[in-house]
Design brief:
Helix content: 40-55%
Number of strands: 5
Largest sheet: 3 strands, antiparallel
Structural class: alpha+beta
Radius of gyration: 23 Å
Strand order of the largest sheet: 3-4-5
Shape: elongated
Number of domains: 2
Strand content: 5-15%
Number of helices: 5
Distance between the termini: 50 Å
Length: 148
């Protein structure tokens, strides 16, 4: 089935369009996919964004809100244990080790790295991964925890 997109002569930037664009962006729809989801030709959509600051802010603000929601979810996953169907905590008491590693890898910069047996004296036990932090004052790797 062919989907017809609204072209430049019929597209109008209405409050409803702005609200719909923000809702879709908040739900994680990429800006490059928004015109198609709204039924507007991409060239027309970007022209409307340039002409209407409210539409551009709705798209940007919605995308930022979606990223913020994901950031909060990852942080909560890293710091709080998962809750099982019966309401009791399940998993590690400090939260998900994978989520913790993800946050450290993205925000820890050069102070945090994941090390496997690379011959420098820090060896993982039974193939497990060791999480190390390079302290800025002496740059010597210090073993913090063993992750299974």
């Amino acid at each position: 089935m062919t989907q017809y997109l609204i072209g430049s002569h019929t597209a109008k930037c209405t409050p409803e369009l702005i609200a719909q664009a923000r809702t879709l962006a908040t739900q994680g729809v990429l800006p490059s996919r928004l015109p198609y989801r709204l039924g507007i030709a991409p060239v027309t959509f970007y022209r409307l964004c340039r002409k209407n600051k409210g539409l551009a802010e709705a798209v940007f603000g919605g995308a930022q809100q979606a990223l913020g929601d994901v950031e909060i979810a990852i942080f909560q996953n890293a710091t709080q244990p998962a809750i099982g169907p019966n309401g009791n905590p399940v998993g590690p008491p400090g939260g998900s080790i994978d989520a913790q590693k993800f946050i450290l890898a993205r925000r820890g910069g050069k102070r945090w790295q994941e090390v496997r047996d690379d011959g420098d004296g820090i060896k993982s036990v039974d193939g497990n991964v060791q999480i190390v932090i390079n302290l800025p004052d002496n740059q010597r790797p210090v073993k913090v925890i063993d992750a299974v």
